[in-house]
Amino acid sequence: AQSVAQPEDQVNVAEGNPLTVKCTYSVSGNPYLFWYVQYPNRGLQFLLKYITGDNLVKGSYGFEAEFNKSQTSFHLKKPSALVSDSALYFCAVSPYNTDKLIFGTGTRLQVFP
Amino acid sequence: DGGITQSPKYLFRKEGQNVTLSCEQNLNHDAMYWYRQDPGQGLRLIYYSQIVNDFQKGDIAEGYSVSREKKESFPLTVTSAQKNPTAFYLCASSIRGGNNEQFFGPGTRLTVL
What single string gives the DSSP state of each residue in B79-108? Predict the structure, then answer.
């Protein structure tokens, strides 16, 4: 079965420290990978995506993600966290040749001042 | 949330009643989607449409119905057959093709009384 796993329900980090939110996937073929962020009672906002090419993808608000094919991972990173980064983060995968997204269960990021 | 509107923001329904959630987009996107979000479960696909007058069931279509009579509009009806309808409902749209990000509306929170 095709799936996305976000193994951490919550990640806590101090402001100014680097952050990582983990994501692994299980799909056949070469997938397209996405990260979205959700603030309370709002829709999701697109952060970045991996389609092909360079394994390090840069996105909005200073976030980046590294695609690792051998480990089937697509971890979200930021060198220096801000309190305003506190939100719910979703990893998603679009299996090859479909228009659908499969979402992980989400990771709540809490950045402490 | 820009470009996609959902109404109403909050909706209350009595058991046994059908209710329709509105989703409108002005992004000229062919594809539209409906998701249900429950705490700890991520987003689950209810229905999606890749073109006007055509739609497909997602993973949890039972108890829901949709129509796609216009490119801009993709309303979702939650019927009395849906056993546990209380949830946060998100509509999204995108250019066709799995490598394109989806744009989300602000959501409708449905509560069954």
Answer: -TT-S---EEEEEEEE-SSTTSPPEE---E
- Structure tokens belonging to residue B94: 């995108």
Residue B26 parent element (H or E): none
Half-sphere exposure of A87 (CA within 13 A, CB side): 19
Token duo for residue B57: 């069931």
- The Cα–Cα gap between A3 and A22 comes to 14
Inform me whether the C-beta atom of residue A105 falls under 8 Å from chain B C-beta atoms. yes
Three-state DSSP class for residue A60: helix
Strand ranges (DSSP E) for A1-113? Answer: 3-5, 10-14, 19-21, 24-26, 32-38, 44-50, 56-58, 64-68, 73-78, 87-94, 102-103, 107-112
Does A100 reach chain B within 8 Å, measured CB to CB?
yes
**pLDDT over threshold 90, residue A2:** no
Mean pLDDT over A41-46 rounds to 90
Q: How far apart are CA A61 and CA A19, in angstroms?
A: 13
Q: What is the pLDDT of residue A20?
A: 98
* Contact between A105 and B42 using a beta-carbon 8 Å cutoff: yes
* Across A92-97, average pLDDT: 87
Distance from CA of A68 to the nearest CA of B (A): 18
Residues in chain B, pLDDT under 50: 1
